Amino acid sequence: MRGEFLDLSGHRLYYYAAGTRGAGEPVIFLHGFPTSSHLWGDVVRQMPVGHRLIVLDQLGYGRSDRPDGAAVTVSAHARRVLEVLDALNVPEACVVGHDLGGAVGQWLALHAPDRVTRLALINSVGLDGWPRWRTRLARSLPGVARLLPAPLLAGEAYAGLQSGFANRDEGRRALDVFLRPFVQPLGRAALLAHLDAQRCNETAAMTLDGIRVPTAIVHGARDPFLSASLSRRLQRAIPGATLELIADASHFSPLDAPERVAAAVGALLAR
Fold first, then answer.
1. End-to-end CA distance of the chain
2. Any idea where the domains of the chain sit in the sequence?
3. How does pLDDT run across 170-192, given as a tens digit for each residue?
4. Cβ partners under 8 Å of residue 17, min gap 6
5. What's the confidence (pLDDT) of residue 120?
């Protein structure tokens, strides 16, 4: 694996590349809130050979720049993904998205269909379904949340996220990595910007029957944030979509069950 920064539209975005260039189409992995490319490490290591794998830190997460006023909505993230693909000379790719990254994938499949070959949605937000604890915290932003020190605000997010892991010890270690950018003094503004963008207006407006690429939906059945019923609704809304439930995985299924997620993406690539 090798990591690099791309200078795009005034921001630096970090990504790492893995896999091999072969006959199969490239795959781009998009994390959700509040994670980073670290989410996909074990999945990437178990992916089938012959594919170029691109694993991105979206703006405001991981090693990428803070937003500093730039939009972090679903559509804004999606347009930056297109810039990344252009910069890497990737004309089209299979898009794999978790959580918010799944919504970004849906937007791309609808608004840039010539750039998306296949779509995998992993414990994805969509339609009117977003984690309630995030939207509750977002509603408090005009008040006390904006006055909290960065470590305390990150701690609030930490507490809300722990139940999203099947293995709490592994979850604590992962959250230490994911929330590291937000505990710095300037991290509060970035975290607040992400939380403020946790709204369902964009996804609720998507007409998902317009997605025409092969689509696989994977859902950790123990997810306390997004019910499996949401993935069933996504399956019904997207023509030809398949659904796999992972019984022993929670919200962060790429960490809970990386082999199952990699197998599901591999099966999608083989369709």
1. 26
2. 2-130+202-269
3. 888 998 899 888 887 778 788 88
4. 1, 2, 3, 4, 52, 53, 54, 55
5. 98
Tokens 């849906």 sit at which residue? 106
Using CA atoms, how far apart are residues 124 and 122, in angstroms rounded to an integer? 5
The per-residue pLDDT for range 107-126, each reduced to its tens digit, is 999 999 999 999 999 999 99
Contact by Cβ (8 Å): 220, 256: yes
pLDDT beneath 70: ranges in the chain: 1, 133-159
Return the CATH architecture of domain 2-130+202-269: 3-Layer(aba) Sandwich (3.40)
Instruction: Provide the pLDDT for residue 168.
Output: 85
| Cα gap 169→157, rounded to integer Å | 17
pLDDT at residue 190, rounded to an integer: 86
Find tokens 């994938």 and name the residue. 105
Give the separation between CA 129 and CA 233, rounded to whole angstroms.
10
Scored b (16 or more CB within 10 A) or e, 18-48 reads bbeeeebbbbbbbbbbbbbbbbbebbbeebb
